[in-house]
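call fold(seq) -> tokens
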Amino acid sequence: MTSSDVAATLPQACDFTVFGGTGDLAMRKILPALYHRDLEGHLPPDTRIIGVSRSEIDDDGYRAEVRAGLETYLAPEHLDPAAVERLLERCHHLCLDAGSSEGWHLLHDLLKDREHADETVRVFYLAVAPRLFGPTCERLAEIDVVDERARVVMEKPIGHDLASAREVNDAVGRVFEERQIFRIDHYLGKESVQNLLVTRFANTFLEPLWSSRWVDHVQITVAETVGVGGRGGYYDHAGALRDMVQNHLLQLLCLVAMEPPTYVGRENVRDEKLKVLQALKPMAPEDVDRDTVRGQYAAGLTAEGPVPSYADDLAGPDPQDAPDSWTETFVALKAEVRNWRWAGVPFYLRTGKRMDRRVSEIVVVFKEPPHAMFPGSEGATTPNRLHICVQPDEGMRLHLTAKEPGPGGIRLRPVSLDLSYADAFDQRSPEAYERLLMDVIRGNPTLFMRRDEVEAAWSWVEPVLARWADSSERPRRYPAGTPGPYAAAALLERDGRAWQETDQ
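ret:
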């Protein structure tokens, strides 16, 4: 798509307001994403970026913080002095406390007292604690800045269970219509995730094999090498199931398992994802006991050297403050999509912190050939596998069995056909937030979660949370720098399968 094509789909004016405008998410992800889009000429010509926070700084002070953030989180070769100055000129700051009623007239005046205010798209990005989502939206309604062109962006977590998710959705929904609410999951903006849809639906060779007739099982892994870091306060009340499975992993499962929509856009994709969530086999208590594994990292050795346990990370510098936490930092589970296409095909999901590698990937393992066609051959056929790497090295790898060159008998050897986005496309791969923020400005909700999706995911996850809460069994300990607790490997081994690693 050329710059002129992009510009034709954009409004002429946009006020992009970031609540939490001096926070980590704004400086690390949101503002660098807006910078890259501005650098390539994709932002609406008349765009303002309004940071809202409790910091008592003026516009110049905010611009200095934004400049420092860009220099910290962007590679030097991506910093164009003219583009940096252009973005900084767009930036403004307001000192507001979302929990207070004071000072909101300043935001009203800034948004209303501008040229073509009635034609300006207003984006309100809630990069704040979820408990402030509802109150912030109520304040926006009170100062009369929410019109039909306004949009609100909500970061996860949306609630900590089904009831609280409904409360958040109700509070925001009293101010914004559903079409104006963009619940962001940055995984859905990654190039490899979007390319999964293209691979399935723009090519004919793969879709006929995409069913229980030919697929043995599917694995989805999101592994991190880092610990909880400075997020311990939040994480200890969330855990891996709420933090990763309820949103990221289930969204990836939906994209793998969904039926072909009439076309990819707007509500069609979200309708099909909802059907997958509704088709997930409910987790009874005995299913949770049998088909889920939760773990917590202990002290161990990583590539960076020795690292402390989860409890020690929570305690910080004083080991005496280490809590006796039962929060899981690792989850592995077996799910099943009960519909015509996928009945009987297990979906294995796992995610964890302080693991032996950083990778997010989907592996579709196909069934073995029904008959051995090469008697007397050396080697053995292996199941065909499609690896879709979401991060860090975006791409795809198709594993096949081939004949090793040479005279005489047939020697079978696994080989792979590789597609690396970095090698195949001679251009920078945009960050997920770049795509998603532009979709918000355009008003395209395709890659965002709808309310019924969020609540369907919570409905499926809640029985697992409830069973774990009633259990007397602690999360299984695993040393940092390992693939997780052995029970996660046993989850597949009892089915005659094994986790597929990237280098296999």
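Residues 1-8 have pLDDT under 50 and may be disordered.
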